[in-house]
Amino acid sequence: MGGPSRGGNAVLVACTYLTVLAVLVLPVLLVMVEALRAGLGAAWRSLLDPDALSAIRLTLEVTLVAVIVNTVGGVMAAWLVTKYRFRGRAALVALIELPISVSPVIAGLVWLLLFGRQGWWGDWLDRHHIQIAFATPGILLATLFVTFPYVARTLMPLMEQQGREAEEAAFLLGAGFWRTLWRVTLPDARWALLSGILLTTARAIGEFGAVSVVSGHIPGLTETMPLHIETLYNGYQTVAAFAMAALLALIAMATVLLRSFLEHDFRKASS
Question: How far apart are CA 172 and CA 189, in angstroms?
Fold first, then answer.
């Protein structure tokens, strides 16, 4: 059976490029155009608004903590499910992947059910003057949940391929767990780890659904960048909304492009 003709290949390539341009490139360009409709100065001034700066700061702080926690947790989870065989391993893998399949809105509702004023632990938290829902801790918990799988899922195939021989040899030579992980396992998996970190970063920065449920949408306090965009757009502040959206898009694009560049260098070095 022969392969596709040269003309068929050309049509397929053209359709692919048109789809990418229409679905991915064109919307980003439209956001940039709308952000600069009133001029660069107006867009810049909108980003210097106190509520906008608060949203940017909160987004970056939550993203930083989520990336650190989920990097450590993802490495540990990937190590456990790839280096050991135990009862319940398949269930653990399914739990690791759960945030990918569950709607972020449902995740946010779960946190409200647990920590909201009418939630299971709401009375206890209220008596001890601890606020999780409609505050930064709730936003962090929601972000941690939706971004947990990325480091683990990028590491698991590579760690599975590595096997256990090198780690067992290191243990026999007297190396501890952390030394073995740092000196034996992670050097070969560093590009996969970095890819997972960048994916986690991009997801955390752009998260809307779960954060929207638990944040309370309080301008200047619990609004992240995506939530602040919604507030501005609903308030008919289109220039400010699109300026923030353009900044968010640029950050996300830079993260993804950095990941693609590093993956290209890794494949080139491996070949």
Answer: 22
The domain of 192 spans 39-270
pLDDT reading at 166 higher than 90: no
pLDDT in tens, 76-94: 999 889 888 888 888 999 9
Same domain, 110 and 21: no
Beta-carbon count within 10 A of 236 CB = 8
Q: What is the pLDDT of residues 10-62, one digit of tens each?
A: 888 889 889 988 888 888 888 999 998 888 899 999 999 999 999 999 999 99
Residues 31 and 64 reside in one and the same domain? no
CB 158 within 8 A of CB 189: yes
Q: How far apart are CA 173 and CA 3, in angstroms?
A: 54
CA 75 to chain centre: 16
Domain identity same for 72 and 205 = yes
Give me 94's structure tokens.
């399914």
Closest C-alpha among 195, 161, 180, 164 to residue 71: 195
Do residues 7 and 113 share a domain?
no
